[in-house]
Design a protein that fits this description.
78 residues
Length: 78
């Protein structure tokens, strides 16, 4: 009977310990997730601005290509 009581106590202690570890892990994971969400939110204006800059650069490249074509058609190299 004493042996059963020790096994049961050890099992209860192990379950409590595992549950505490799982709760600590979940809390750490939630904290990391919150931190990543904050980083994404902070980077959103930067990514939007970068998209506008890329669009402007593409338009400028197209315009430069058209200017170069006109210069070549007009005999600009002669």
């Amino acid at each position: 009977m004493s042996m059963e009581r020790r096994v049961t106590s050890a099992l209860v202690f192990a379950v409590i310990l595992e549950t505490a570890g799982a709760l600590l892990w979940a809390g750490g994971a939630a904290q990391r997730l919150t931190m990543l969400e904050d980083r994404v939110e902070a980077a959103r204006p930067i990514s939007e601005r970068l998209a506008r800059v890329e669009t402007t650069l593409t338009l400028m490249q197209d315009q430069l290509r058209r200017i170069e074509e006109q210069v070549q058609d007009d005999g600009g190299g002669e």
